[in-house]
Amino acid sequence: MTLAFIAVTVVACGGKKTTAAEDVSTESSETKAAIAHLTKDEYIAKVSDFAANPDQWVFKGDKPMLIDFYATWCPPCKQIAPILEELAKEYEGKIDFYKIDVDKEGELAKAYNIRSIPTLFFIPTEGDPETVLGALSKEAFIEKLDELLK
């Protein structure tokens, strides 16, 4: 009986063998294609220099953008993460998707007065960003993203 269980376990869990390095490289390339994580310096280079323009929004991007201010311990942030990953792939090339960990990038969170997470910035190519607090449904995300493309 024990031998039969071991045989079933080996067959069920066997699958394709990959090394840890292969697993990591595959995972990181898939993640890079969807949503990039921004540091303060990357944010300043790609999105807006909040220190140089404290009283005015000056957007550096060339296409609309969604930024998710999140924390790894936040349940609503975890809830919307797969939705954002899916939508980032669906809107790839049309809208840039970024994530900012408020625990690692406290200066950015403070600069934009982020007090609730998730906080989402929907940034059009022209005009001010729209800030949304809390988790959204997939349908609500699609509606907001489609508005950015108009």
The largest sheet, given as strand count, sense and whether it forms a barrel, is: 5 strands, mixed
Separation of the first and last Cα atoms: 64 Å
Order of helices and strands: HHEHEHEHEEH
Number of helices: 6
CATH fold call? Glutaredoxin
Q: Give a count of the beta strands, DSSP E runs of length 2 or more.
A: 5
Structural class: alpha/beta
The 3D shape can be described as globular
Can you offer a commentary on this structure?
- This protein is α/β, with parallel strands linked by helices and 150 residues long.
- The protein has one domain: Glutaredoxin (3-Layer(aba) Sandwich), CATH 3.40.30.
- The chain is built from 6 helices and 5 strands.
- It has a 5-stranded mixed sheet.
- Strand 2, helix 4 and strand 3 form a beta-alpha-beta unit.
How are the SSEs placed, and which strands pair?
Elements: H1 2-14, H2 20-34, E1 36-37, H3 40-46, E2 65-70, H4 75-90, E3 96-101, H5 106-111, E4 119-123, E5 130-133, H6 138-148
